[in-house]
Amino acid sequence: MTKFRRQIKDSEKESRIFLFRGRLLLFFVVVLMLVLVGRMAYLQVFQYDLYTLRSERNRTSVEAIPPTRGLIYDRQGQLLADNLPSHSLTLTRELTSDVEQVVARVCMLLELDEACQTTLSERSFQRRRPFEPALLVDQLTEEQIARIAVNRHLLPGIDISAQLLRNYPGGEALSHALGYVGRISEEDMVTLDKRAYSGTHYLGKTGVERFYEDQLHGQVGYRKVETNARGRVIKVVESERPIPGTDLTLHLDAQLQQVIYKILGNRRAAVVAIEPKTGGILALVSSPGYDPNVFIGMLDSTDFNSLRRDPNLPLFDRASRGQYAPGSTIKPMLGLAALENNVVTREYELMDRGYYQLPNDDRLYRNWRRSGHGLVNLARSIEVSNNTFFYNLAYNLGIDEMSSFMRRFGFGESTALDVNSARDGLMPNREWKKIAYKQPWFPGETLSTGIGQGYWLTTPLQLATATAALANRGKWIAPRLLASTNPQLGLLAEKNTQEKNTQEKNKPNIELKDTENWDYIFEAMTQVMHGSEGTARFSGRGANYKIAGKTGTSQVYTLSQETNRNTDELPEHLRDHAVFIGFAPVENPQIALAILVEHSGGGSQVAAPLAREILDFYLTPERLALKEINLAP
Hints:
The chain folds into 2 domains: 62-144 and 156-249, Penicillin-binding protein 2a (Domain 2), CATH 3.90.1310; 254-627, Beta-lactamase. The strands form 6 sheets. Strands 2, 3, 4, 5 and 10 form a 5-stranded mixed β-sheet that branches. Helix 3 packs across helix 4 (116-123) and helix 15 packs across helix 18 (443-450). The termini are far apart. A hairpin with an 8-residue loop joins strand 14 and strand 15. By secondary structure, it is of the alpha+beta class. 37% of the residues lie in helices and 17% in strands. It is elongated. The chain contains 24 helices and 19 strands.
């Protein structure tokens, strides 16, 4: 019976266990309450400002208001670059859980090509901060807007916004002078001020648009809005209006620019025209051009690659970036250098038998006329473009003196105040060759330089600049596009010029010991156009004003001195370029210009006749009706 005894319940022990457990539970509850109270105190007291700001941001947000881009006008007040209203498609990534799916639906609805999904996905990342809409597609048609609106419930994060887009009425003719605005790329975002460009999707890429980007862009505004849980705007709390960009007035003559572009036709060519008295660039034409409006919309990669691979290089600005040998166009300036250094006099004459020989050298340096021109002085050698006279002149003048004097006319450096990315060209001398080739300078190279060939390279803009300085009788005025009298813009142009070492004050006037030498050279250049032997006499016939000009041939392929230069037998890409410089009227120059036509032969046959047409239009506008040239709108 004892082994089956029932165990008696120990109430005291159970009470102790219960009490211990109760105290332990109470301890944990108290600790947890203290932690909770402490956390609440920390959040509501010490972190009050932070979470108040976060809460406010959940309710309100600041949206950037992009400024209206400044307009661009020509000297006559004609609008060259304006802004047109357009509707764009944007995407806010934070408002959608599946960006790729939304982008795919957009491509399907807008009937875009297969490559668009990748492009739009990449564009969705091109923004400056979270919750900022990224631009996907601009210039939506009414049909596309309707399709998006009907399917809005399937496109979270997608929105349609109105904006002003750049428009260039002049099209191709003004493309290289004005440049274009393009979409802000990821590379641009690295260097751009994110605050200044908040809400802006485009910036100037080339030309005037690029150089004066800071002024044209303006200052961004903002608005503080209250939103609901879905991010929709309920009301505007406060706002600050953006400051529009500054309108620019250029020296460009849009009608002259259009006429020149039409006169050039399908030629690969460049024309630069300058007003000598002001330095204002009247025309900056590179042919062929391109339509700058295509860079504003969603440019198809196939179309862009087609532009890049076009053998005629429509994207290349021949006027300010093309570098060519100047040919005989530089003979008037070299003539002045020789007169200034007493290498020749106005009375000095040389017998030309068709060639020139260096001392102790059997090589013959040929004149372009194989039989020679007989007895020639400096004036006649300019009129008939005699090479023999200038071989002798260059040899006696020397390369260093020649280079030094020609730099006073702006050769070998970019002197334009506001032509974006203009190249420096090349004005060679002994020191340059020693550094570039680690070789000495040879006398034969001096002779080649004396007729504008060899290492010497210049841009059409530099040739026009030198011609304007010549027409001004040495008064140096750096060429410029901007004609605005706004002092702030003037200071900006000067600042940028200082950065490029092309300030006006760094280029002193060209002072001659004998000022009558200007008249002497002007008369020689006038004979080029109106003289009985002038190389461009056929282009000067019938003009009711006097033209001072000089033709030239820029050699592309060097032939043997014994070979007759019959360019018709050469492939087109090896043929010479035609070059011409001139100004008119001689008594009171209103326009100075330089023309270069690629692979077209001599300047007298091709470039000079084009110059005559341009001068006729500019100086006698009533003749425009006789030419039946239809200007672009």
